[in-house]
Amino acid sequence: MIGRKTPRTEDDTPNLKGFDDYDLSLGDVMRGERATLNKSLLDVQRELRIKAPYIVAIENADPAVFETPGFIAGYVRSYSRYLGLDPDWAFQKFCEESGFAGVHGMQPEANTARSDAARPAAKRGWRRNRIEEDPVLASATALMPQRTALFDGFNAGALGSLIVLAALLGGLGYGGYAILQEVQRVTLTPVDAPPDAVVDVDPLAEAALARPGYETAGVRAPSTSALSRLYRPEALEVPVMTPRDGPIATIDPNSIGVWRPSVTTPPTPTQLAEAGPDDTPAVQVVAPTPPAVAIVATNPAWVRVRAADGSILLERILETGESFVLPNSEAPPTLRAGNSGAVYFMVDGQTFGPAGAPGAVASNVILSRETLSTTFAAADLDADPDLREVIATAEARLTADPADLPPAE
């Protein structure tokens, strides 16, 4: 075909890039190493004591986030050492990507504390300026002591603290004084009570009025004791009591209490003649109880008794001579038994069975009195002495103590 073997030019060959052809920044390397260690920014902040925004700034090569440029080198080296990278290579890479040239002690931004602490000479007193300008007075070996101003060490912030402290103490003092006045206050409340007797200042004043030679009309002012008696009830010499019982001497201990003799009056001949047997039949208020149906095992056999509603009344292995009495219910339960040749039924004192052939499984056996008496034949106890002994033992258990029967599981 035409053009089948046309040679390709070099421009048609695609230029595939390798792994090293892509730009790999310091942040990509650090984020990859941090992801390899399965560490988050909060984990790094908790372990290195470096704030998470600073960690992000190092990965993004952004020195503007740092408040103090002097700590950038230490943060970068500590973080790179934590990730297992070369600290010098990481710091050099950070400087190349961010344009950070490092900070040394001669740069003004590295000495911020010293520049902030310096005060201009214009704010100082003329005496201090004079001492600093004199090389002899300013030297540490000067003989004369340096004089300081009165308010040289005064701080305006301390004045505010003193004012707040004084206000707090004043408030506490006023509160204590107010509480003390409230506690010591006495309030008089009028009550509905008669006035008390006032003691006479001069008890002889009444006697002085009765002078010899003078006659009175027999009218005297009421005394204080008389006023008191008006409001005070008169006390009785003997309390008024209404007796509820008779005198103790009239009580006969033989007529009351546990010592009272029982008196039986013999019946008269007329009463005996009129008495006769009570032919009134007893009133029946409940239906007669149906006869109990019991399952007896002559040999170990697995049985499961299921109620009409599907609940399981019994499901276990009955040992030799063990029996189970069916509870009374409206619908008869059903039986499923293994080794049915060893399972018998007791109804009205009679034994029916077995439920099936020896070693066979009997299913859906209706455990009702009518079904068991019609479906199964009566067991011949005389022909089998062992069966007679097992049935006798089961009957003795059921008759002696029904509470000892095995519970339904």
Task: Please summarize what this structure is.
With 409 residues, the chain is an alpha+beta fold. The protein has helices at 26-36, 41-48, 52-60, 72-82, 87-98, 112-117, 126-133, 156-184, 205-209, 224-231, 269-274, 369-375, 385-400; strands at residues 293-297, 301-306, 312-318, 323-325, 334-337, 343-347, 350-352, 362-366.
Question: Low-confidence runs (pLDDT<50, min 5 residues)?
Answer: 112-128, 135-144, 402-409
- Terminal Cα span: 93 Å
What is the strand tally? 8
Shape: flat
**Derived structural class:** alpha+beta
What is the ordering of alpha helices and beta strands?
HHHHHHHHHHHEEEEEEEEHH
Search tags:
409 residues; 8 strands; alpha+beta; 13 helices; single chain; 4-stranded antiparallel sheet
Characterise the protein shown here.
The protein is an alpha+beta fold and about 400 residues long. Among the domains are: about 20-110, 434 Repressor (Amino-terminal Domain) (Orthogonal Bundle); about 295-405, no CATH class. The chain has helices spanning about 25-35, 40-50, 50-60, 70-80, 85-100, 110-115, 125-135, 155-185, 205-210, 225-230, 270-275, 370-375, 385-400; strands spanning about 295, 300-305, 310-320, 325, 335, 345, 350, 360-365. The strands form 2 sheets. A 4-stranded antiparallel sheet has the order 4-1-6-7, sandwiched between helices. A hairpin with a 5-residue loop joins strand 2 (about 300-305) and strand 3. Helix 4 (about 70-80) crosses helix 5. The protein is flat, with a radius of gyration of 60 Å. Residues about 110-130, about 135-145 and about 400-409 have low confidence and may be disordered.
